[in-house]
Amino acid sequence: MIATNYHVIEDAETVSVSFIDGNSYEATVNGYDEDRDLAVVSVSLDDISDDTLDEISVAAIGSSDDLQVGEQVVAIGNALGYGQSVTTGIVSAKNRRLDGSVQDFDSDNADEADGVNLIQTDAAINPGNSGGALLNMDGEVVGINSAKLASTEVEGMGYAIAISDVADVLENLMNETPREKVEDGNHGVLGITGTSVSDEAVQVYGMPAGVYVTEITEDSGADEAGIKKNTIITEFNGKRVKDIQTLVDLLEYYEPGEEVELTVEVIDGDGYKEKTVTVTLSENTNKDEDKEDQEDKKNNEKEDQSEESEGNLYEDWENSEEEKEQIPDIREFFGQW
Predict the structure, then answer these.
(1) What is the pLDDT of residues 231-280, one digit of tens each?
(2) Of 9, 118, 182, 220, most Cβ neighbours within 10 A?
(3) Closest Cα partner for 130 from 79, 86, 188?
């Protein structure tokens, strides 16, 4: 089992792990927590050669709670893809926050903010270090390198997820049963048409973030489960659903006939009330459209990657307000899901 960041494996078609001896092996994503930027991947021991196994050492887990500001730490990673590297520094601050929903850093409201509890360090955390270990001077893992604040106005501000705060989460992810994508669009569907709830709707109208249901397919799994129009889907089998594409991606791992648990928000007077419903997935009748959508998605991702420089996915924190305004609030995806 290997712990890493969610943004390292996000949207990956395949995952491989390279070990200290230079050998690489195909890995499976056991589970992930997008909000906390965590993922656990595994490599079958049967696939790993004896020589590689002899080189592997299991890291000892330390206590990030016991860290002191000014204490020396070491960040391990694969900076710029050149191979294993080590940088050193000190703990600059503790209890920083990264809001998982908007990937924004707010040190002024650290105690009130939602998100991941971070250790701030001046040890260099460069592209390729994400998912690597932050170690104390006893060689114990106290953090998972996650982000770097990129700006011409700052220097030496890297962040690692505090290990003590996420130990239970990692254990749960380790115990999740890995799933394979269902091939050729044969995955199950809920039987809804939906759209993403915009940030504006969340902030101005108090709507929950998720997928707003605009239509229900008659006799579908969603229909049989009692889901109605205007319902907002916020979780799918324990995974947060932040928009329609997240829901589409999750469904690709489930067969028709499987039962899934949805957390939904339904209108209740002037607000919303949370409910949990179990849905038996229906057969996908729009396979050809799904394939076209996936091709469009891949093409768009390639275009985006060609326009962006290589680096940590969190290095866009310092985007100008003008650039942020160009990002659409609503991403609609119409079709049967």
Answers:
(1) 999 999 988 898 998 899 889 889 999 999 999 999 998 899 999 999 99
(2) 118
(3) 79
Q: Does the annotation count 85 as an active-site position? A: no
Catalytic residue among 33, 37, 243, 290: 37
Q: Please give the Cα distance from 130 to 10 (Å, whole number).
A: 13
Give per-residue burial for 51-79: e unless 16+ CB within 10 Å, then b.
ebeeeeeeeeebebeebeeeeebbbbbbb
pLDDT band with cut points at 50, 70 and 90 for residue 313: very low
The enclosing H or E element of 163 equals helix 163-174
The token pair at 31 is 């589970």
pLDDT at 99: 55
Between CA 7 and CA 27 the distance in angstroms is 16
Q: What is the predicted pLDDT for the residue at 303?
A: 54
Give residue 35's identity as a one-letter amino acid code.
Answer: D
List the alpha helices (DSSP H) in 180-314: 199-205, 221-224, 244-251, 287-307
Query: Which position among 130, 146, 220, 282 bears the catalytic label?
Result: 130
Q: Which strands form 15-18's sheet, in the order they lie side by side?
A: 2-4, 38-42, 24-33, 15-18
Structure tokens at 321: 């307000």
Element (H, E) at 95: strand 85-99
Q: How far is CA 86 from CA 32, 124, 127, 283, in A?
A: 26, 9, 13, 50
What is the reported pTM? 0.63
In the annotation, is 7 catalytic?
A: yes
Rg (CA), the chain: 21
Q: What is the pLDDT of residues 105-145, one digit of tens each?
A: 444 444 444 567 899 999 888 788 889 999 999 999 999 99
Task: Specify whether 187 is catalytic.
Answer: no
117's enclosing H/E stretch is strand 116-121
* Tokens (6 digits) for 130: 């994400």
Q: Does residue 299 surpass a pLDDT of 60?
A: no
